Amino acid sequence: MQREKVTEQLKNRDLSINSEEIPVEAKDTVPAEQKLSPKARSLAANPGDRIADEPQTIEQKAKQIAVDVPDITGDHIKVPTYFIVEYPNGEKKALHHVKDAEEISDVIRQARMDENGNRIWW
After folding, report:
1. Do residues 95 and 79 make contact, with C-beta atoms less than 8 angstroms apart?
2. For the chain, first and last CA: distance in Å?
3. How confident is the model at residue 22 (pLDDT cuts 50, 70, 90)?
4. Contact 77/69 with Cβ under 8 angstroms?
5. How many CA atoms lie less than 13 Å away from 94 in the CB half-sphere?
6. What is the dihedral of CA 103, 107, 110, 112, to 10 degrees?
7. Do 97 and 81 contact (CB within 8 A), yes or no?
8. How far apart are CA 68 and CA 62, in angstroms?
9. To pair with 49 at 20 to 30 A between CA atoms, which of 13, 55, 79, 91?
10. Above 80 in pLDDT, residue 75?
11. What confidence score (pLDDT) does residue 59 get?
12. Do residues 96 and 82 touch, judged by C-beta distance below 8 A?
């Protein structure tokens, strides 16, 4: 019986917030001209994950590093922003490590080893 009473009280609570109840110091005081644009707000937390606005060559993309830090074990982790893949027909493609992760996985799954232990991609 007590549980039903509490449940009913919770259902009937008014959870709306009156803007006059919010203290001035808690309100958003950033002037409109200083607020970030939608594009700026959608930037990745990791600068290395960002994709440049202007077109880049494959060589420029190949030099970009997304992560270059020591991890908790003391090993140094270095992750390229783009993985450069060369297809059997000679075409080169820069795959972004986040945006194109599924395609990168597909390429890795296709890797094979020859009798000398060398990786053969196709």
Report:
1. no
2. 69
3. low
4. yes
5. 16
6. -160
7. yes
8. 15
9. 91
10. yes
11. 93
12. yes
